[in-house]
Structures are given as structure tokens and as C-alpha cells.
């Protein structure tokens, strides 16, 4: 009982600090929760001091991944601001449609759906949110909406990684794995209209706009999810990528020709001047950072093109011993490793060129400055540096907290919580299974890691309770995706990119309400299918 209470303690404290009336900033709440988790695993779980400290070092190093992604995204969008590219895109989108619902669905839903299918890593919110703020939407509402939007496509993530890699330890046959993929897509497709509507309700000031534009919302939603559902029957790699691409084209056409949109234009979300005509060459130049990002992400994520393997070469080209700290090595593709940290089995690896930061954000940002003949490089770097001060502290705390809670995997605090919840629910586990997946994403910030951590637990529970295994694993995958909206890493990332101060708790409280709706829909379907 003491172990179980101790496992819940750091989580309860973190949620309390971030959701109480006068919430504590993530830059303070996360390091404090990490300290409590450290003391719990050391003195209650009685893990070896060297193992715990090695996990702390690993957590601090793992934080470099989200830090670099956030910094890269801030750098890219600052380049777009100073060159005027963002203003041109804003004007073009206003020419397509000045309807706020249309703009939210084009950028926040369909475009982000495509980006998730190409990249993952929380990139969709990082790219879509600044564009929407540039269009005049309130930053705090945009942050919440983008987190909610970026859930449905996350089940398949970057070319199917959460499925084919995240469920690898379950050793399912290809036929059973495809069944998991299809059931996951089916559950998400049923939930999608409700989740999209909830995301829009969080942004628009006049809720009557949802009623007036309901047909457009439904058509745009299904333009992504129907291809996504159909592809899930034959592929686990491309449902989100292809579904997003098809959905973006259809949504743009729907918006351009006012199909399903309310005709009145005086319900704008902000006061905007009548947009000027933007020629195609100017638009291509201004949107280069966006389509260039998609292009680079696609060519570096599809294994058949060969570039992905090159960027992930791990064979050391140079290595050195760092004494008791471990062994450091760097590969030809700049994959940095620290192995045997403090002489333990714990290791760390950072794929410098594969993580979406230098490629594509920094490279395309620099090319954008060159393309527009801008001399604002120093300004962009200074802005990025100043924007990263608080997020760095928060993310160091977040990743140490995650590592403490997931230390030793099978005997970790998170696994203990998962088994406890499963024991309480019994035969009703089909309803609660998505919430375990969401718990994994809340901690780890990754649907893939949630699946790696809990797929085996879910499989065992399904077998013990004689529930359909592929259905339970589908619910795990759906839950891992829906947990993306409450993941601390993602919340810190989007607030940092939008320069929002001390708003993480507010965002978490609003997002949890949508997560409960999502979980209710998924759990109900789970009870039927299981």
C-alpha cells in the first residue's frame, strides 16, 4: 500500500500545483515534482542510488530533444515574421476565406494533420499555432485548440511509428497489427467530429459560429479521417500523412468555394484589413518555410528513400571515455551517445539531424532570411535565446520527473499505477484502457513511448480478463494519442513558442475536460468492440 500511495504522490502534487486557483508556473512545479519523485524512488521504492542518479542525468540529457525542437520552431517563425513571409501567408489565407472557422480548420486541423503524419515530435502545434496567432486569434485559446486538434492523427504519428515501433514488443503478427491499426482509426474517426468541435469551441468567441458552419466543419473533419480510416486497413505508415494531404486539399477547396460556410463575413474574430491579391510566385516564396518543412520531413521519414537511415547512423566515428560518467561517441550523422551512465545499463542518444530542429527548422529559417535578403539573423537568434529561458528549466524538470516515474519500467511507479487501475476496473477494462494510454503520454510526451511502456501491460490484462487483445491494444493506441493534449512537454512547448507566461495550468485544466470527452467516446466503443 505504501508503494502505491507513493507512486501516486508525485503525480497528485504536480496536478495540484498546476491546476489550483493560483497555479504554479511549470518552470517551478515540474522541478519540484521531479525532486519529490526522486525522493520517492530512492527512499520508498529503494532503488540503488547510482541507478537513480544515472536516470536523472539521462532525463536532463533527454530534455535536449524538446528544447531543440522548440528553439528551432521559434527560430523559423521569427524568420518568417522579420521577412514579412507570415504577413503574405496571412493575406493569402484571408483571400481564400475570411471566415474564422475555415481558417481554423485549414491551419489547425488539416495542415497540422499532415504535419503530424510527416514528423510527430509535437511539431504540428509548433507550426500551426503561430500562424493562427498571426491571423488574429487569441494566443491562449490557440494553444489549447492546437493541442486538442493534434490528437486524432497522433495514433499513427510520423509514418506510423507509434504503431509499428510502439507495439513491437507485443510481437503481434502483421495481420493482427493491421487489425489494431484499423480499430484505432475507427475509434478515432468516430471521436473526431466531437473533438474537432470541442477544439473550435475553445477558440471562437461566438459559439453560434459552430452552428452556422457545422456542415463545413463536418466535411473538413471527414476529408481527413475517411482516407485515414481506409488506409488503416492496408498500411500503418501512411494514414495520417496521406489523410492529412487529401484533407488539406479538400478543406482549402471547401473554404475557397464557401461550401458549408456561413456567408456573412462580419463575424470575424478580429479586425482585419481587406486582404490584397497575392500572386502565386510571391505566395510560393513566402510559404517556402512551410512547404519546405513538409518536403524535408517527408523525405527524411520515409525509409524507402534512404535518407532516414543515413541520418540515423549510429556506428561511432569518434568516441572517448568520460570516466565514471560513461562512454561518449558521435557517429558520422551526428548521433550522439552516452552509454553506461555512472556504470549502469542506462544510456542516452540524441539524433541531432533527425530530430526536427536543425533539419528542417534552422536550415529553412536561414534559407528564408537569404531568400528575402534579410540581415536580421542576430535579431532572430536573440529573440530565440530570450524565449527559451523558462522553457529550458521546465523541460529539464519534466524529463527528470518522467524518468523517475518510469525508472525500471516493469517495477516503475507508472506501471504500478497502471496495474492498480486495471485491478479496480476488472471486466470493464475496455472502458478504462484508453486512459492508461493517455497516462503514458502525459508522463513521457510521446505516443510511441506510451505504447512501448503499456502495450505489454494492456496485452496481459486483456489475456487475463479474456478480452479481445487487438481491441485493447487499439484503445491503448487511441489513449496514447489523446494524452497528447495534456502532455506537459507539449504544453510547455506551445506556450513557449507563443510566449505565454504562467498559463500551463490553465491550459491543462481546459484540455483535461476534452480528454474526458474523448475517453468517454473511446471507452464506450471499447466496451462494444472488446
UniProtKB/TrEMBL annotation:
Single annotated GO MF: lactate transmembrane transporter activity
Transmembrane segments: 25-45, 51-76, 121-140, 147-165, 185-204, 213-230, 242-261, 353-372, 392-408, 428-457, 478-500, 512-529
InterPro entries membership: Lactate_perm (IPR003804)
Transmembrane keyword on record: yes
Superkingdom as given in the UniProt entry: Bacteria
GO CC annotation, single: plasma membrane
Location, primary (coarse class): membrane
Compartments reported by the entry: Cell inner membrane; Cell membrane
Keyword Cell inner membrane listed: yes
UniProt keyword terms in alphabetical order: Cell inner membrane, Cell membrane, Membrane, Transmembrane, Transmembrane helix, Transport
Protein topology in the membrane: Multi-pass membrane protein
Protein role: Uptake of L-lactate across the membrane. Can also transport D-lactate and glycolate.
Family classification: Belongs to the lactate permease family.
Protein's UniProt name: L-lactate permease
Species in which this protein is naturally found: Paraglaciecola mesophila KMM 241
Amino acid at each position: 500500500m505504501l508503494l502505491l500511495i507513493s507512486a501516486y504522490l508525485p503525480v497528485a502534487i504536480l496536478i495540484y500545483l498546476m491546476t489550483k486557483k493560483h497555479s504554479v508556473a511549470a518552470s517551478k512545479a515540474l522541478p519540484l515534482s521531479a525532486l519529490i519523485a526522486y525522493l520517492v524512488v530512492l527512499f520508498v521504492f529503494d532503488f540503488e542510488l547510482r541507478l537513480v542518479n544515472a536516470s536523472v542525468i539521462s532525463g536532463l540529457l533527454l530534455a535536449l530533444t524538446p528544447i531543440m525542437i522548440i528553439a528551432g520552431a521559434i527560430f523559423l517563425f521569427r524568420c518568417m515574421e522579420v521577412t514579412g513571409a507570415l504577413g503574405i501567408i496571412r493575406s493569402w489565407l484571408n483571400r481564400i476565406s475570411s471566415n474564422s472557422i475555415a481558417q481554423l480548420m485549414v491551419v489547425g486541423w488539416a495542415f497540422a494533420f499532415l504535419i503530424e503524419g510527416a514528423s510527430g515530435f509535437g511539431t504540428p502545434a509548433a507550426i500551426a499555432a503561430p500562424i493562427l496567432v498571426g491571423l488574429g486569434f487569441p494566443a491562449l485559446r490557440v494553444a489549447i485548440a492546437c493541442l486538442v486538434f493534434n490528437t486524432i492523427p497522433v495514433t499513427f504519428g510520423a509514418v506510423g511509428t507509434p504503431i509499428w515501433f510502439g507495439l513491437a514488443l507485443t510481437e503481434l503478427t502483421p495481420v493482427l497489427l493491421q487489425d489494431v491499426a484499423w480499430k484505432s482509426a475507427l475509434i478515432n474517426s468516430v471521436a473526431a467530429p466531437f473533438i474537432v468541435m470541442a477544439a473550435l469551441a475553445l477558440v471562437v468567441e461566438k459559439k453560434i459560429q459552430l452552428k452556422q458552419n457545422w456542415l463545413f466543419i463536418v466535411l473538413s473533419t471527414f476529408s481527413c479521417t475517411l482516407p485515414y480510416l481506409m488506409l488503416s486497413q492496408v498500411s500503418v505508415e501512411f494514414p495520417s500523412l496521406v489523410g492529412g494531404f487529401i484533407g488539406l486539399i479538400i478543406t482549402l477547396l471547401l473554404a475557397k468555394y464557401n461550401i458549408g460556410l456561413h456567408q456573412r463575413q462580419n463575424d470575424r474574430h478580429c479586425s482585419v484589413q481587406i486582404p490584397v491579391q497575392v500572386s502565386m510566385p510571391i505566395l510560393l516564396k513566402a510559404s517556402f518555410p512551410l512547404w519546405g518543412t513538409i518536403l524535408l520531413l517527408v523525405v527524411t521519414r520515409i525509409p524507402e528513400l534512404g535518407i532516414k537511415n543515413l541520418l540515423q547512423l549510429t556506428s561511432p566515428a569518434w568516441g572517448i571515455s568520460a570516466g565514471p560518467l560513461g562512454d561518449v561517441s558521435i557517429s558520422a550523422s551526428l548521433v550522439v551517445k552516452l552509454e553506461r551512465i555512472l556504470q549502469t545499463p542506462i544510456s542516452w542518444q540524441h539524433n541531432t539531424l533527425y530530430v526536427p530542429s536543425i533539419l528542417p527548422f534552422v536550415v529553412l529559417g536561414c534559407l528564408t532570411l537569404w531568400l528575402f535578403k534579410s540581415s536580421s539573423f542576430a535579431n532572430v537568434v536573440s529573440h530565440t535565446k530570450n524565449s527559451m529561458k523558462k522553457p529550458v528549466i521546465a523541460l529539464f524538470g519534466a524529463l527528470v520527473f518522467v524518468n523517475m516515474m518510469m525508472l525500471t519500467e516493469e517495477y516503475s511507479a507508472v506501471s504500478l499505477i497502471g496495474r492498480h487501475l486495471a485491478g479496480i476496473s476488472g471486466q470493464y477494462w475496455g472502458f478504462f484502457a484508453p486512459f492508461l494510454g493517455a497516462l503514458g503520454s502525459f508522463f513521457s510526451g510521446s505516443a510511441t513511448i506510451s505504447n512501448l511502456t503499456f502495450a505489454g501491460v494492456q496485452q496481459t490484462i486483456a489475456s487475463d480478463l479474456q478480452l479481445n487483445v487487438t481491441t485493447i491494444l487499439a484503445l491503448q493506441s487511441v489513449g496514447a494519442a489523446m494524452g497528447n493534449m495534456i502532455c506537459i512537454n507539449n504544453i510547455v512547448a506551445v506556450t513557449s513558442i507563443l510566449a505565454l507566461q504562467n498559463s500551463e495550468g490553465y491550459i491543462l485544466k481546459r484540455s483535461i475536460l476534452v480528454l474526458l470527452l474523448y475517453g468517454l467516446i473511446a471507452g464506450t466503443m471499447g466496451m462494444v468492440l472488446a
